[in-house]
Amino acid sequence: MELMDVDPVRLESSLWVGKKRYRAALTGWHLNWTELDKKNRDKKTVSVPVSEVIGVEEGRVQVLPQRSVAEDTDREFTVFYVKRSSSGSSYGLLWRLGRTQFCCPSRDLRDQWMTQLRIALKTHSPSRPHRLLVFINPFGGKKQGRQIYHSLVAPLFELAGISSHVVVTERANQARDHILKKDLTGFDGVVCVGGDGIFSELLHGVIGRTQQEAGLSEHDPSLTLQSCDLHIGIIPAGSTDCVCFATVGVNDPVTSALHIIIGDSQPLDVCSVHHRSSLVRYSVSLVGYGFYGDVLAESERHRWMGPLRYDYSGAMVYLSNRSYAGVIQYLPADSQLSSPRDNTRCLSGCSVCSKGTERLFPHSPGASSLYSSHFSQFSSDTEGEWVSVEGRFRAVSLTCMSSSCPRSPLGLSPSAHLADGTGDLIIVRDTHPLGFLTFLHRHTSTQDQFDLPFVDVHRVKAVRFSLPTGEEEDKDEERERVNDGGMMEEGKRPSRSGSHKHLIERGEERGQKDFLCGLCCSKAPTVSVWNCDGEILPHTEISCR
Ligand SMILES: Nc1ncnc2c1ncn2[C@@H]1O[C@H](COP(=O)(O)OP(=O)(O)OP(=O)(O)O)[C@@H](O)[C@H]1O
Ligand SMILES: CCCCCCCCCCCCC/C=C/[C@@H](O)[C@H](CO)NC(C)=O
Ligand SMILES: [Ca+2]
């Protein structure tokens, strides 16, 4: 309705691109230019939606790889726009900066084109950000965050008229604390340049700040949390970059920068992880016990290897051949709505997610435009029956999204939805080493990961994990951890270094030195650790929703 009421900006004229003559038209929502032959007949037409125009500059201008402006070009202007490249991943295309340099018959006409295009951009792109707060983790991935931002992203933001305040972090959790405590007036969004860890900092900052401002405690698992208005953008420069890959479809800084500029947004499910009555962390990707917890614990000792540390640690943990006892309880989601084995792929605009958003936020008109939101209209204890599974497990994984990444292009659960308010629980029961290797191998191929006799997958609204009777987490140990800051109390937030410290302490406390000395000792540990979006949790018994 709103769109129909806007008086569209129109302009049509003859223009030149190089030596070819075109009829160019700015009509409502599109900029089109059609090549004309010598007899004025139409040849090829290029059409760009105004919403995908990045910027308009006087003269003959180039921005990437370096900015250059040609002289004496007062009849020329350059239009920059989103150009979809033919390469990308199975469900995401690379975006590139398209550029066309137009030459007008007169300077007056050039000025008219520039003015009308800029008016059209303002009118038709209401959700574009104007001011962004950017956090660069200089130590993420291959340590190229600064270079990636300054050479590939900043020139695009500048071209699009976005002003950015850049913070290069000097310590873990600086970005989170900044969002929690500093004045954010005037910022339309926050952006991280790094991996899933720095994204998680922004997520905790944004959710935490929103709750603080609403006077709500994040520790109460039954509480309806306030949805977050501040959008989070991700420029991938980490090791796994799973959140970026699963939402955009490729890990490419230019593609992500262009999505941010045009104001694209995608709501995300957020899972809260509690231990007893305290919030431990939020997760958007993987909450994993057993194999994925062990891989993370092992990989933290080999950070110097960069992204390769996960492959090395994966192989080491696989060779250690472990399984763990536990009790899993889960609350199934409505199987009429979707299933983890229905072979769907969730993309932006997914109908299951739209219905989920309507169902979860019936009175919130802005819900569908949230980038990251906490689905809080949750009545887990009244909706359905909890199911309990006890046994020995190779891996227990809960993933709110597919968790696809370059290592696993379809992800841990290929048909999981980004924003339906559910997660997929993947239970890999103890099995022989070859069976488990088959399962791991299927992560990296297109073969059905769940079509194995020792694997079960359930779409769920909540999960609890506990140790078998007699092996529960030691209460005294818990108290020590709280005092030591490992648990997330009011005013405190988790840290990667903090949780790693706990892993070491925990290993020592429990006599699991083999966890920390190269996985070489003969005595197998009885408990694993939880990997929560790449952070080690300081607790074994947790509840997620
Ligand atoms: N200046 C800093 N010094 C040390 N650690 C930092 C700094 N800034 C951020 N961190 C922390 O570094 C950790 C890892 O960062 P990040 O996620 O960006 O990279 P990664 O681990 O290589 O990638 P991925 O999480 O995708 O595997 C995060 O937990 C973050 O909190
Ligand atoms: C015998 C070697 C086996 C190697 C198995 C490789 C399987 C790769 C699957 C990767 C899935 C990653 C899921 C995403 C988790 C992220 O949240 C987290 C943070 O970045 N990354 C990791 C690696 O924990
Ligand atoms: Ca989901």
Automatic annotation (TrEMBL):
GO terms for molecular function: ceramide kinase activity. InterPro entries: ATP-NAD_kinase_N, CERK_C, CERK_PH, Diacylglycerol_kinase_cat_dom, Lipid_Phosphate_FormReg, NAD/diacylglycerol_kinase_sf. Residues 127-277 form the DAGKc domain. One of its GO terms (cellular component) is membrane. Signal peptide: none annotated. One of its GO terms (biological process) is ceramide metabolic process. Residues 468-502 are annotated as: Disordered. Pfam families: CERK_C, DAGK_cat, PH_CERK. Residues 478-493 have a biased composition (Basic and acidic residues). It comes from the Eukaryota. PANTHER family: CERAMIDE KINASE (PTHR12358:SF95), SPHINGOSINE KINASE (PTHR12358). This is Zgc:158263. It comes from Salmo trutta (Brown trout).
